[in-house]
Queue: 2 jobs
Job 1
Amino acid sequence: MTQLASTREELAKLLAPARRDGAVVGFVPTMGALHEGHASLMRVARERVGGGPVVVSIFVNPLQFGAGEDLDRYPRTLEADLEVCEREGVDVVFAPSVDEVYPGGVSTGSTSEDVTVAPGPLAEVLEGKTRPGHFGGVLTVVAKLFGLVRPDVAVFGEKDYQQLALIRRMSSDLCLGVDVVGAPTQREPDGLALSSRNRYLTPDQRAEATTLSQALYAAQREAEHGVEAALQAARAELRRGKDVDLDYLVVTDPALGDLPANPEPGTDARILVAARVGTTRLIDNMSLTIGAPR
Ligand code: PAF
């Protein structure tokens, strides 16, 4: 049975037996509004920890939302989320208040007296360009949650690929000792990546939103002819979406660095896209193999 903790003390109490027994602790941080994508992360965590506890946090983190973003309207569905956790055999849900996570208040900017995590240059590109401060907010809350849960393994979706890369870097660069595992993106039958933000889409926008994944699939098919061919195929698909306002479409190496100018046949790469469909910003990404059939 899933147990619910809303304070640091309750969490510590629920995890005390596992700590005493030296059990492997698995962790899936979320902002709630749980869907099949989150459920798949819980299953990956369960596989990793065996009989050890799987902990899920549900916390809409104000620090990672910029002015004018969807903090207020972000869906909060705790009852339904607990049902998902129960179904997936999660042991502990940690659903703290904002005060519990930020007892000193949520302050941003250079005048803050709080210690926060500086995410480095990888946070300035792609999502970071349009969402200044976003990844600092993500890494700060994940570091706090790692400190509270003290997991051995933490599972994040590949859907937020830049976030996953940055959390990996944080765990390794700050020697946090957490094994950060990426889990594949879950998709609707028509290819749309599952996301809590999909619920903002009108039926027409929902239909147009598939353009993103269709563009990435087209790039995968053309990647054997090189990076430019892959990008062209993706752009052609994206142009079909009338209400799709492209932010970026890029091909990088798997760690989000630059690819060599003339990649060897069979080089692994990543293609990432972000676009606004109506007023909703969506992101997606897929792996590519450059210069060789997949
Ligand atoms: O991916 C998310 O849901 C959030 O960014 C995370 C990792 C839970 C931090 O708030």
Job 2
Amino acid sequence: MNTDSPDAGALLNTQNKLRVLVPNFTFNLGFSGKFFHTGTDEEDEGDDMLLKHRRELWWFPHMWSHMQPHLFHNVTVLAEQMRLNMLFAQEHGIPTDMGYAVAPHHSGVYPVHSQLYEAWKTVWAIQVTSTEEYPHLRPARYRRGFIHSGIQVLPRQTCGLFTHTIFYNEYPGGSKELDKSIRGGELFLTVLLNPISIFMTHLSNYGNDRLGLYTFQSLVKFVQCWTNLRLQTLPPIQLAEKYFQIFPQERDPLWQNPCHDKRHKDIWSKEKTCDRLPKFLVIGPQKTGTTALHSFLSLHPAITSSFPSPVTFEEIQFFSGPNYDNGIDWYMDFFPFPSNVSTDFMFEKSANYFDTELVPKRAAALLPRAKILAVLISPSDRAYSWYQHQRAHRDPAALNNTFHAVVTAGPQGPRDVLALQRRCLRPGTYAAHLERWLQHYQPSQMHMVDGSLLRSNPALVMEAIQRFLGISPTFNYTQALVFDETKGFWCQKTEGGRPKCLGKSKGRKYPEMNAETRAFLAEYYREHNTELLRLLNRLGQSQPGWLREELQGTSRS
Ligand code: A3P
């Protein structure tokens, strides 16, 4: 009895024919072991024949029972399911070292389900996967790749074949639609415009009218007839290496809010919620009074700050550095589940967001509707405060050089002094940094807090902030704060009426800046401050007193 499957035979046959036109062309077959030999006799024969020829094909694990990984919250259970598929592969001699996997139904790769990445790495040592969902399914020409948690995610294209498109004459819109797509239409253009294309079709496209074989054979012939493109196939790991060589700028992902795309939300764990994201950000810059603002905001009954980080204390520093690589699950763990989404105002403050290049773009991708608070004091005073901060942290460049020497050092100066100079001066070019934020946020989403007024009259400033955030009823800060003569600053008034002030590192005692350095800095910042004045006028925001003084040369510390 001949038990060879004609469909599986056709697949192998087409592969051989395609190899003549596309060096190394190989079908990469996904398997869900639980469904082995569970079809009709004919289908089971197909299973057997593919296995018999397994060494001529490439294989990737799909999922043991084709379930969606994002439904599994527990990584151990997910890994157990994967192990069943691994056992199946081992029992049937299927190679397990290709380093590539695809999750069923687009689940778990993007938006990232970190459990999937973890389980894939532990069980299968996966290095490469692909998705149609990053950053979105449509428009298809914008699909991109990224690398997360050591796994390279390649963009996957769509070829117009789905589980239900199995008969040539019943192709949606008529068979001419499929042929049009192949011969100069969408599918042809996809291959033409992407140096690397990955397509995934279904088993049903290889039975019935075998549209999978028809489509790719016709496509290759058409491309070779009408273009000079040389087609070739690479195994997944080499393919990913090539991809990120061509598109190195795609390595870092840009995390978006999963709830802003229904497709994303549908393939995101139901145990996760976009409500665990901040409604507003305090972005800094450093040394302008951001800790005081954070502590005052936290006194408000309707405002909740992020949980403290064991490493960076009251700051998360997610958008500004390596923490961003941890992904949004990590970020959201810093926020509680709000008890009332519309009245709870969650926020986080990370003072280096203000002047870190990538932050506005990243923040706007995840939190496009957030409100943004920036605290501005005289940039000269800010620079001096940073210098004193570095002295207190025993930074040799700050200990061994006067502030004047640091800020006036020329480009040939010692490296460590120039690095300190940059940290003193650069955040203070306020207008330039704010313009970058304004490329991603509407002016109505931004509020500039006068840091000098925050220091001298915090209740007034807090009232304006509440108005900007739209919080009512307004919390009365005159009763919540008290001026502490010894500290020389406003502090929280505790139950017994005693002041609870910020620690010693906030509101340090140090000598006044000397007049010569102040004059130098006033000149250094003159143009930047003029720009800031213009910008605030343009935005209809009030001008802080220190800005007018600094521009008139009358400011004092
Ligand atoms: P100095 O220590 O140089 O005086 P940040 O929290 O952004 O690092 O800013 C620290 C600065 O906040 C302090 O700088 C201090 O001047 C200022 N500040 C404003 N209001 C304060 C308050 N109520 N308590 C302590 N410091 C305050």
